Amino acid sequence: MARSSMGNDLLTTTRAFRRRLDLTRPVARQDLLDCLDVAVHAPSGTNRQPWRFLVVEDPDIKQRIADYYRKGFSAYLSARTPRPDQLGDLASGRYLAAHLPEVPALVVVCSLGRPPADATALHLASFYGSIYPAVWNFMLALHDHGLGSTMTTAHLLYEREIADLLGIPFDQVTQVAMLPVAHLLPGTTAQGPRRTPAADVTMWNKWGEQ
Ligand SMILES: Cc1cc2nc3c(=O)[nH]c(=O)nc-3n(C[C@H](O)[C@H](O)[C@H](O)COP(=O)(O)O)c2cc1C
Predict the structure, then answer these.
(1) Cα–Cα distance, 44 to 11 (Å, whole number)
(2) Among 35, 57, 66, 162, which is disulfide-ready with 101 (CB 3.0 to 4.6 Å)?
(3) Cα distances (angstroms) measured from residue 207 to each of 199, 200, 201, 202, 203
(4) Tens of each residue's pLDDT in the chain, 210 residues
(5) CA of 16 relative to ligand 1 center, distance in Å
(6) Residue spans per domain, the chain
(7) Looking at the DSSP assignment, which residues form a beta bridge with residue 129?
(8) 96 lines ligand 1 (CB under 6 A)
(9) H helices of the chain, where?
(10) Cα–Cα distance measured from residue 44 to residue 91, given in angstroms and rounded to the nearest whole number
């Protein structure tokens, strides 16, 4: 099959970077803006472009967000028994939780609006589907710039507290993810993430027919 000229390597080697983040090297605002400029090319329902990005560099504010993140991450861990193949990811998740305040920039991704409490599948698909493509575009652009991140959501257990901390109007704006951004340590190799091949998860014409 002809390969697309689009960066398949970038698409297949962008992954969750945690231990490979360089916690000692600052990230330039211009680099972040360049990557956010790629993020905003993502699609959104009726092109409403609901994204807003709040970049936290202030050490005290990062520390307070990290405190909420750690509590959220512990709650997440205590609610489940990991499969053996998840232990490595969880160890790296613990590393990130412990070092979050040292990551140079925490990018809090917000979406204008809030899904109603009785949201239908259509509401939810439209709401979250109009913001996560921008998050992924951002992660791809970061990797292309030699920066790395991980999509994180554990802090959202404390979304209201973090909204108060950051001055986000909770009723009008939903936080959807936080991207801790740093340069990648020298020597970080382009390993693709482990994934089940598409043929194993694709059905044709009817559910169950592979
Ligand atoms: C919606 C979503 C929420 C996530 N939340 C967290 C999180 O709170 N903390 C974390 O360390 N990783 C989080 N992750 C990262 C996943 O653990 C990671 O994408 C997955 O293990 C695949 O990693 P890989 O691409 O390096 O293989 C999240 C990913 C997604 C898509």
Answers:
(1) 20
(2) 66
(3) 14, 13, 11, 9, 6
(4) 545 555 689 999 999 999 999 999 999 999 999 999 999 999 999 999 999 999 999 999 999 999 999 999 999 989 888 888 888 888 999 999 999 999 999 999 999 999 999 999 999 999 999 999 999 999 999 999 999 999 999 999 999 999 999 999 999 999 999 999 999 999 988 777 789 999 999 999 999 977
(5) 6
(6) 16-186
(7) none
(8) yes
(9) 8-13, 29-39, 59-78, 87-99, 121-129, 132-144, 159-166
(10) 34
- CATH number assigned to the domain covering 16-186: 3.40.109.10
Ligand 1 pocket residue status of 151, Cβ below 6 Å: yes
Question: Shortest CA distance to 188 belongs to which of 146, 151, 158, 127?
Answer: 146
Shortest-distance atom of ligand 1 to CA 76: 8
Measured in Å, residue 75 CA sits from the centre of ligand 1 at: 16
The tokens describing 7, both together, are 């960066």
Residue showing tokens 């509590």: 71
The answer, yes or no, to whether any atom of ligand 1 lies below 6 A from the CB of 179, is: no
Ligand 1 pocket test target in 152, 156, 191 with most atoms within 8 Å of CB = 152
What span, in angstroms and rounded, lies between the C-alpha atoms of 51 and 32?
Answer: 15
What is the per-residue DSSP string for 135-153? HHHHHHHHHHTTEE---B-
